[in-house]
Amino acid sequence: MDFCHQHNLVDPAAAGRERKFGIRVSLPAGDTLGNVVGEDWEQLHWYPTAAERDSAFAKMAIRHGYYRNTDSPTQTLEKISR
What we know:
The protein is α+β, with helices and mostly antiparallel strands and about 80 residues long. Helices cover about 20% and strands about 20% of the residues. The protein has a domain at about 10-65 and about 75. It contains two helices and three strands. A three-stranded antiparallel β-sheet has the order 2-1-3, covered by helices on one side. It is globular.
């Protein structure tokens, strides 16, 4: 598989590795963003090891600096495996 942009989520060096550990990102029931992206919206991120998944989970769970002080992010994060 060719990668043409450096910002792709998959590192080309690890593109063929099996990924069993994941993070499901979704919205809580009744979240108003669901009116825009759909009530059943979710995004899955897969990782080769539990340690990589757990590290990414910790980073995703932090309230990052791009939010305004008055913003209240409502994403739901869930660790999953297959």
